[in-house]
Structure formats: structure tokens, C-alpha cells
Design brief:
The chain is α+β, with helices and mostly antiparallel strands. It has one domain. The chain is about 25% helix and about 40% strand. It is globular, with a radius of gyration of 13 Å.
């Protein structure tokens, strides 16, 4: 069930999954800082919100991230962003 705040457009800034977490912090206007944590490793990413009402979010996986790890990170980020009520999600490598 959606809470009243979610119905009014409020978006949580932290998602905690069973073995990873994601936090989105506003920086400047549409720019955001994204903190991704899994198995004790912490990765800081930059991203931006886009679209009407900033209902979309996009980020890039850091260069040099191995294939399997990059795929896991992309799946985790997509899951977290969807749970944070972003309608459009773009994760690029």
C-alpha cells in the first residue's frame, strides 16, 4: 500500500536490499550523488534526474568494472531505483 507521501510525489532516497544498499543525494538541480554498497565495497557514482517531474534517473557504471560485477551493479541499481518510484531508469557502462 502506498503511503500518503508517496501519493503526493515524495520519493525515498535510500533503498536497502537483502545484500546491497543504494542512497541518492541531491547535488545541484537535477544532479545527484549515488552511493552503492555491496559486500563491504562502497562505490560513489554521479547521476542525474530527468523527465517531467524528474521521474527518471540515469547513471554510469565506472570504467574498469568487470563484466559480472557490472551486470550485478546494474541489476541492483535498477531494482533500487524502481523501488524508489523512478519511472524511467537508465544505467550505462
Amino acid at each position: 500500500m502506498r503511503s500518503l507521501l508517496e501519493m503526493l510525489g515524495y520519493r525515498r532516497n535510500t533503498y536497502r536490499g537483502s545484500d546491497f544498499s543504494v542512497r541518492v543525494k541531491p547535488r545541484v538541480r537535477e544532479g545527484v550523488s549515488i552511493t552503492y554498497q555491496r559486500a563491504g565495497a562502497k562505490v560513489e557514482l554521479l547521476g542525474e534526474r530527468y523527465g517531467k517531474g524528474w521521474n527518471g534517473i540515469q547513471t554510469r557504471i565506472p570504467y574498469g568494472t568487470e563484466g559480472a560485477q557490472a551486470a550485478q551493479m546494474a541489476a541492483d541499481l535498477e531494482t533500487a531505483f524502481r523501488e524508489m518510484n523512478y519511472e524511467h531508469v537508465r544505467v550505462e557502462k
